[in-house]
Protein backbone atom coordinates (compact mmCIF):
# COMPACT_ATOMS: atom_id res chain seq x y z
CA UNK A 1 0.00 0.00 0.00
CA UNK A 2 1.38 3.40 -0.89
CA UNK A 3 0.87 6.32 1.43
CA UNK A 4 0.19 9.65 -0.23
CA UNK A 5 1.33 12.79 1.54
CA UNK A 6 -0.33 16.16 1.09
CA UNK A 7 1.53 19.45 1.19
CA UNK A 8 0.36 23.02 1.21
CA UNK A 9 1.01 24.67 -2.10
CA UNK A 10 -0.25 27.68 -4.03
CA UNK A 11 0.83 26.70 -7.50
CA UNK A 12 1.99 23.18 -8.34
CA UNK A 13 1.96 20.24 -5.92
CA UNK A 14 5.64 19.80 -6.80
CA UNK A 15 6.30 23.26 -5.26
CA UNK A 16 5.35 22.92 -1.57
CA UNK A 17 5.12 26.11 0.45
CA UNK A 18 7.59 27.01 3.15
CA UNK A 19 6.34 27.76 6.67
CA UNK A 20 7.02 31.48 6.92
CA UNK A 21 5.57 31.51 10.44
CA UNK A 22 8.86 29.85 11.42
CA UNK A 23 11.55 32.48 12.10
CA UNK A 24 14.29 30.09 10.93
CA UNK A 25 12.63 29.84 7.51
CA UNK A 26 12.52 33.63 7.25
CA UNK A 27 16.15 33.91 8.34
CA UNK A 28 17.21 31.32 5.76
CA UNK A 29 15.48 33.22 2.96
CA UNK A 30 17.09 36.47 4.08
CA UNK A 31 20.50 34.75 4.17
CA UNK A 32 19.98 33.57 0.58
CA UNK A 33 18.95 37.11 -0.37
CA UNK A 34 22.16 38.51 1.15
CA UNK A 35 24.21 35.85 -0.64
CA UNK A 36 22.95 37.02 -4.03
CA UNK A 37 23.12 40.73 -3.20
CA UNK A 38 26.77 40.33 -2.19
CA UNK A 39 27.38 38.81 -5.61
CA UNK A 40 25.94 41.84 -7.36
CA UNK A 41 22.44 40.90 -8.47
CA UNK A 42 20.34 43.95 -9.31
CA UNK A 43 17.16 42.78 -7.62
CA UNK A 44 14.61 40.05 -7.15
CA UNK A 45 11.32 39.17 -8.77
CA UNK A 46 8.72 39.24 -5.97
CA UNK A 47 5.50 38.58 -7.87
CA UNK A 48 4.43 35.84 -5.42
CA UNK A 49 5.54 37.45 -2.17
CA UNK A 50 1.92 37.99 -1.08
CA UNK A 51 1.57 34.17 -0.95
CA UNK A 52 4.29 33.63 1.68
CA UNK A 53 1.93 33.37 4.65
CA UNK A 54 -1.15 31.23 5.13
CA UNK A 55 -3.43 31.61 8.11
CA UNK A 56 -1.87 29.73 11.03
CA UNK A 57 -5.11 27.78 11.41
CA UNK A 58 -4.75 26.49 7.83
CA UNK A 59 -8.44 27.10 7.19
CA UNK A 60 -9.92 26.41 3.78
CA UNK A 61 -10.81 29.46 1.75
CA UNK A 62 -14.55 29.96 1.36
CA UNK A 63 -16.09 29.63 -2.09
CA UNK A 64 -16.22 32.76 -4.21
CA UNK A 65 -19.70 33.56 -5.56
CA UNK A 66 -19.89 33.07 -9.34
CA UNK A 67 -20.61 36.77 -9.95
CA UNK A 68 -17.29 37.69 -8.28
CA UNK A 69 -15.10 35.29 -10.27
CA UNK A 70 -12.58 36.93 -12.58
CA UNK A 71 -11.14 35.05 -15.53
CA UNK A 72 -8.54 37.82 -15.89
CA UNK A 73 -6.80 36.45 -12.77
CA UNK A 74 -6.62 32.85 -13.96
CA UNK A 75 -8.46 30.88 -16.67
CA UNK A 76 -12.15 30.52 -15.84
CA UNK A 77 -11.80 26.73 -15.41
CA UNK A 78 -8.98 27.12 -12.87
CA UNK A 79 -10.10 26.21 -9.31
CA UNK A 80 -8.22 29.29 -8.11
CA UNK A 81 -11.13 31.40 -9.37
CA UNK A 82 -13.60 29.48 -7.23
CA UNK A 83 -12.10 30.61 -3.90
CA UNK A 84 -12.15 33.79 -1.87
CA UNK A 85 -8.44 33.88 -0.95
CA UNK A 86 -8.75 35.23 2.58
CA UNK A 87 -6.62 32.54 4.27
CA UNK A 88 -3.85 31.87 1.77
CA UNK A 89 -2.57 35.20 0.45
CA UNK A 90 -2.03 38.85 1.36
CA UNK A 91 -2.02 38.01 5.06
CA UNK A 92 -1.19 40.76 7.60
CA UNK A 93 1.90 38.81 8.77
CA UNK A 94 3.42 39.44 5.37
CA UNK A 95 4.01 43.12 6.16
CA UNK A 96 6.37 42.34 9.03
CA UNK A 97 8.38 40.02 6.83
CA UNK A 98 8.52 42.61 4.05
CA UNK A 99 9.97 45.10 6.53
CA UNK A 100 12.69 42.58 7.37
CA UNK A 101 13.29 41.91 3.70
Strand content bin: under 5%
Structural class of the secondary structure composition?
mainly alpha
Main sheet properties: none
Helix-strand string: HH
Shape: elongated
The whole-angstrom Rg is: 16 Å
Detail the poorly predicted runs.
1-6
Distance between the termini: 44 Å
- Total helical elements: 2
List the domain count as a whole number: 1
What is the average per-residue confidence, as pLDDT, rounded to a whole number?
88
User: What is the percent of helical residues?
Assistant: 10-25%
How many beta strands in the DSSP annotation? 0
Please provide a written account of the structure.
The N terminus is likely disordered. It is built from two helices and no strands. The termini are far apart. The chain has one domain. It is an all-alpha fold and about 100 residues long. The longest helix has 16 residues.
For this entry, give a set of tags.
single chain; 101 residues; mainly alpha; 2 helices
Mind sketching the topology for me?
Blueprint: H1 23-38, H2 93-100
What is this structure, in a nutshell?
This protein is an all-alpha fold. 24% of the residues lie in helices and 0% in strands.
Amino acid sequence: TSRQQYYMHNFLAEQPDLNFHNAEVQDALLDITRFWLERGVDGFRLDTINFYFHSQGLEDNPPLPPEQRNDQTAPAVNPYNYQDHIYDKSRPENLGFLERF
